[in-house]
Amino acid sequence: MKLKDQVVLITGGASGLGRALVDRFVAEGARVAVLDKSAEGIRKLESDHAGNVVGFTGDARSLDDNKAAARRCVDVFGKIDTLISNAGIWDYNTALVDIREDKFDTSFDEVFHVNVKSGLLAVKACLPYLVQSRGSVIFTISNAGFYPNGGGPLYTASKHALVGIVRELAFELAPYVRVNGVAPGGMATDLRGPASMGMNDRSISSIPLGELLETVLPIGRMPNVEEYTGAYVFFATRGDAAPATGAVLNYDGGMGVRGLFASVGGKDLEEKLGLSK
Ligand SMILES: NC(=O)c1ccc[n+]([C@@H]2O[C@H](COP(=O)([O-])OP(=O)(O)OC[C@H]3O[C@@H](n4cnc5c(N)ncnc54)[C@H](O)[C@@H]3O)[C@@H](O)[C@H]2O)c1
Questions:
Q1: Closest residue (by CA) to atom 6 of ligand 1?
Q2: What is the tens place of the pLDDT at every residue in 66-79?
């Protein structure tokens, strides 16, 4: 149990990666508060993890809701050691040419509001508690924080912005609060799109992501959502991660090391080493 007696606040913790993070952090001995807009997801979390999880149904885009979630966390568990800013939406790779002119402002604003502004608001709401606890912040970024084609320009720009925010806040909040990011790759979750683009009922689970990634990822398969959680435990662990601030971990199955002529270079390694059966 690496996180015994630690308290973590997670935004977007009712589904997908956030839900897997709640389960993992509880298993590591932490108590967890969750801010999510899904009342049903929050109810399920509280009943699955009675006593260890407290939920707040609200909108991560609102400073008031972030403040209320932070207060609830402190009222119930006494402190906040780590904030994980994780709530997000995806633009379903909508290219610039395909973004409707009459929806451009609302589409841009919605993606940036959820993916970027809500992260800043969460930190602002939790800051006094994080300074008191000498705590840390972890942002969920994405492969789209580094490479093209993991989204359209709205999503890609929003995730690149988070890389900048990690670096800026790591500077601004030092020496009290460490700020890091995890940049996961594709996962089978319920990731939705912007309502302004008519994509709020679309789920990434409708795409055969596993099949698509199997052929292009150096690790040869799409990781399970649970397999992404270890990096967050690492960054939250005070002992192991004491030197880590301003760091972003590319945690995406190797998207940055695909080759020019093939996605992987070692397909015939077993044969060359005489290890094939
Ligand atoms: N699924 C992927 O392939 C993938 C890849 C890289 C990065 N990510 C990132 O992972 C993070 C988690 O997404 P996921 O894939 O687990 O999706 P998900 O939809 O399963 O989970 C996201 C959660 O955030 C909540 N949420 C969304 N907007 C909110 C708001 N305004 N206020 C409160 N709660 C809100 C949702 O209700 C949901 O519970 C996102 O930041 C996403 O960009 C996902």
A1: 142
A2: 999 999 999 999 99
Q: What is the DSSP-derived secondary structure letter of residue 92? A: T
Give the count of beta carbons closer than 10 Å to the beta carbon of residue 160.
Answer: 17
Q: Is the CB of 117 under 6 A from ligand 1?
A: no
Q: 144 vs 90, 198, 244, CA distance in Å?
A: 10, 21, 22
Instruction: Name the CATH superfamily for 7-272.
Output: NAD(P)-binding Rossmann-like Domain (3.40.50.720)
Residue 55: C-alpha distances to residues 8, 20, 27, 48, 68 (Å): 12, 15, 17, 12, 11
Residue 41 CB–ligand 1 contact under 6 Å: yes
Please report how the helices 39-48 and 16-27 are oriented relative to each other, as an axis angle in degrees rounded to 10. Answer: 20
Q: Where are the domains of the chain?
A: 7-272
Query: How many whole angstroms separate alpha carbon 189 and alpha carbon 204?
Result: 6
Token match 């790759």: residue? 185
pLDDT tens for 167-189 read 999 999 999 999 999 999 999 99
